Every structure is written in structure tokens, then in C-alpha cells.
Amino acid sequence: MQSFQLLAEKFTLHFDKKHFPEQPASLYSPNEYFLGLGGKRIRPVICLMGNELVDEINPDAWHVATAIELFHNFTLIHDDIMDQAPLRRGFETVHKKFGENTALLAGDVMLVKAYEYLGKIDPAVIHPILHLFNSTAREVCEGQQLDMDFEKQEEVSFEDYLKMIELKTSVLLAASLKMGAILGGAGQRNQDLLYQFGKKLGIAFQVQDDYLDAFGEPEKFGKQVGGDILSNKKTFLLIHALEVADATQKQQLKNLLASNDADKVEKIVAIFKACKVDEWALQLKNKYLDEAFAHLEDVAVLSKRKQPLKALAQFLVHRDY
Amino acid sequence: MQSFQLLAEKFTLHFDKKHFPEQPASLYSPNEYFLGLGGKRIRPVICLMGNELVDEINPDAWHVATAIELFHNFTLIHDDIMDQAPLRRGFETVHKKFGENTALLAGDVMLVKAYEYLGKIDPAVIHPILHLFNSTAREVCEGQQLDMDFEKQEEVSFEDYLKMIELKTSVLLAASLKMGAILGGAGQRNQDLLYQFGKKLGIAFQVQDDYLDAFGEPEKFGKQVGGDILSNKKTFLLIHALEVADATQKQQLKNLLASNDADKVEKIVAIFKACKVDEWALQLKNKYLDEAFAHLEDVAVLSKRKQPLKALAQFLVHRDY
């Protein structure tokens, strides 16, 4: 079992190459630009770790990990269009730099490229991998749609938001891990436990993401701090604040949500702090992390093989970027 | 060998069902709406015909044909966003009816659904099918990008336009036929000849499409007549007109292209007629049809088995909608 760090370096060496032809450059250079912005590569590496948990890395796992990372980048390009996000990883988003139509098409072709890598794997495992990849891809789209739907609703329950996050974020982490486990030859029970571990970890990961949007340090975070607040995105923080705020604070929050004040972010963050939303979020994150670890505990492999996954989970929920 | 008509009826019976879950309805009802608008179903049926040319229909051909039709509909939904098209098949486009973000996501999930059907086929044939499907899908995206690039160029050569049309339109017809042939067990030479037949047929098909945009009868055509002209799309007609027009006509054309006159379509069509672009287009169409038939002639199967494909080709290039 190799550490996340080591596997991430190996994956980066494998992944950081041109994935697209030269021409037409108007289509493919936006793709290479976006991939060149880097990223944490968590999903592909967790796939490799899922494989290594049970056996040596299957050569097909590199193809599947690459497909997963391309799929993730496809979702980012399209989500950035939908969210009208100006920045991604501190740089201009594809639609800002190249226009919306090109970004739309660049995303499409990124998704097709993901399937090109899946098309390389051994026919003996292609059915379970494609099945899981496809159902997960659809769920991620469902999550993004719910996310957009929620922007138009005045209030969203914690349960509905949780369901959306599971679809939009958790299932891809969970499926990445499970695909790795499938390629490593894991049995059904271990596959399922790893999927559950990934799902809970994904929720903890999103709590941290929501937390960083409001409380992160701009120079580390990469994205626009307060981006969720400016676009009136429902987040774990906002939903909880609306639940625990007193009548005055709740009214202030609603007024701020309806406004475009220059200090909207600052004022909403101040209410979050007054309601101790920051402390609550850290507790919530740890709750899901504990649940994730309970599933990992039950996976029937030697305990020491689980160390790298545990370390990764700790890193993901304590990162500041 | 069954006729296009008969196979189209069988395909319609097979295809006209719900392809998506009920929830979230905000995502999936736009998909069902768009599929419900119907269509000529040419590409999936030509896949079935490619199969039947060589052998009885392989059950997997229905999955592949379904994937092809879903892929085609994915491209239409996204192209309509990029082209800002108000109508498709006489009805509101998805982005007009449901908003651009939902249309973007509905297209994405339509593409994923296509791969769900591909994921059902026998692992013994999945590699060649996925390989051809993926490379074709990327080529179609390349064609759409070139099409958008050309809109910004003042002049486009006939050769460049032809290359774009091959990518955007022809390769999907060609690949549909070839995938059917692969599933029917055709040898490599027959597969390649059918691909060439499909490619030439695709060009003739597009010539007719461009022709109908300017000279079609609105009540039969379904789309907005003159839509290409209004969006300054380079077409076979416009490119040829700019080549053969005299200096006065050429200047008039350029002025009209730069304008948004209420009678822009009418005036440009009048110049097309004065330059005999309509007659030229019909000849061009027949040239490519003849070339297509020469390839079909060389396919090593009994001549009578080719009749339905010949009849379909005739229908496609003489249709008025």
C-alpha cells in the first residue's frame, strides 16, 4: 500500500500529458488549458488506492483513474458555465477565457475522452466498471440539477441538501474507490463497505468545502472566497444558520440574500459566526468522518493496508485549500 | 432485408418509451420532452440496416441503435444552445423551454444514457463498438467547433466546409452503418466500404439540408426556414454563391450578411436564385450520391440485399423536410 502522496505523484506523471489532438485547436486547447490548471487528483488516486487495498495495481486501473479525472474535469467545466464562475483554481474558467459555446463543447469532448479511456480496459471487467461509471455520472448530473433547483427555493431542508451533496459529490468519490476495488478483485461485501466509506467521506469533504468558501484564507483557497454566498447557494452553513438564527438574524440573512451589497459576504459571514455555524460545521464534518471510518474498519483486509486511506481521509477533511 | 420504413417502425416501437427515471423531474422531463418531439431516426435505423445487410439482426444492435439516437439527440440539444435556435422539429428547443442551464445538463445526461445502452452489449464486441462510437463522438464535436469557427470567418473555402460537414454530419451516418455491419459480423473490407458509402451519403444529405434551409417549404420543413441565413451560417449555398457571384452580387451579399434587415432571408435567397445556386446544389447532391452508390456497389453481398439501403439513400437526398 502506497501513500496518497506517492500514488498522487505517480498518477500525475501518468496523467500530465496531452490527452487531445492538436487540431482543431479552438476546441482542444481549452481542454489542455483546463487540465493544465492541475487539481488535487483525489478521485483518480482514491481509485488506485481502492485497487491497492486488495491487490497490486491492475494496469486497467490507470485507464479508469484517468477516465475518472477527465469526467470530474468535464463536470467542473460545465458547472462553471452554469454557476457563471469567473475563477477555478485561481485562474480564469474555460467559459470566461474562451466563451460559453466553446466551454460547452470542450466539456462534451472531455466526457467523450473519459469514455475513450474506459474503452481500453479488459472486456472481462468492462461491464461492472461501465455500469458503475454510468450510473454515477447520471447521479452527478442529478446532483447538479438539484443544486440549481435549490438556488430558486427560498428554504431547503438539511435532508434535501444532504441528498443533493451525496449525488453531486459523494457518489463519485465512493464509485472511484469501488471501481478500484473491483479492478483489484475485491469481493462484493468489501466493495460495498468501501462505497459507503467513500460516500460518508464525500459528505465530510463537502462540509469542509462549504466551510472554506466562507472561512477559508483567500490566498490558499484558489477559488473566490464567498462565491457560494454571492450566488445565494444553499450550503451546509446557510441552511444551518437559517435553522438556528434568532428572528432578527434570520431577517437580516434574508435581506442580505435578496441584496447585492458590496459587503454581502462579510455581513453573512459575521452572522454565521454569531450563530456559531463555524463550530457546528467542524463537528458535523467529524461526525461523517467517524461514520466513514466505521465502514472502513469493517473491510476485511489487514488493518495496516487501510492506513493510507485513513491518512487521506484526514487530509481531505482538514485541508485549507 | 427489411425496408427502411419497416425497420423504422420497429425501431420506433423499441425506442418510444421512457428512457429516464421520474426524479428529478426538473432534469429528466426536458429529456423526455425532447425525445418526444420525434425525428427521422435515420441513424439508428441505418445501423440496423448495416447489420441486416450481412446477417440477421444481432440483439445488441438494438442497444447500439438506441445509443446512436440518444447521442444524436444530445448533439441537437447542445447545438441548439450554441446556435440559439428557437425551434426544433416545429417545437420549442430545450433551452428555450427550460433554460440554458437545464438544457446543458439535460444534454450531458442524454450522452451518459447513450453510454448506458452501450454498456449492455456483449463484451466480445464492446471494444470495436466503443472505439468507433467514441472517435465518432469526438469528430462530431470537432465538426461543431469548426462550424462555430467558420461563423467568425468572412470567407470559408468549399474544401474547409466539406471537411467540417464530414465531421459534423457524415461520420455519424457512416459509423452507424459500420457499427451495424460489425454487429452483423461483416469483414473489414465490407465495413470500410459501408463507412465510405455512409460518408458520401452524409454529404449529399447535408447538401439537401442546406438546400431546404433556403428553398424548403416552411410547413413541411419543421425548422425555421432561413435559420442558417439569419445566423450567417456558412452553407454549401452561401460558399458557392460567394464564389460565382459577380462583383455587384458579391457586395450585396456581404452587405446583407452584415445587416439584420427584416427581409434579409428573402434578399439572400433571391441572389442565390440569380446565381443558380439551387440548380448547382442539386447537381452536387447527385454527384455525392453517385459516389456513395459506387462504394455500396463494391460491398461483397448479394445485390438484392442492398436494395433497402439504396432506397433509403434516395429518400434522404430527395426528402423535403
Name given to the CATH architecture of chain A:
Orthogonal Bundle
What is the CA-CA span between the terminal residues of chain A?
26 Å
Query: Spatial order of the strands in the main sheet of chain A?
Result: 1-2
Mean pLDDT of chain A: 95
Q: Largest chain interface and its two residue counts? A: A-B, 37 and 37 residues
Helicity of chain A, in percent? over 70%
Instruction: Tell me the major beta sheet of chain A.
Output: 2 strands, antiparallel
Rg of chain A, rounded, reads 20 Å
| CATH class categorisation of chain A | Mainly Alpha
Put simply, the count of helices of chain A is 16
**Which spans of chain A of ≥5 residues are poorly predicted at pLDDT below 50?**
none
SS-based class of chain A: mainly alpha
Remind me, CATH topology of chain A?
Farnesyl Diphosphate Synthase
- What is the assembly state of the chains in this entry? homodimer
Number of separate structural domains of chain A? 1
The helix/strand order of chain A is: HHHHEEHHHHHHHHHHHH
What best-fitting shape of chain A do the alpha-carbon axes yield?
A: globular
Q: Give the full name of the CATH homologous superfamily of chain A.
A: Farnesyl Diphosphate Synthase
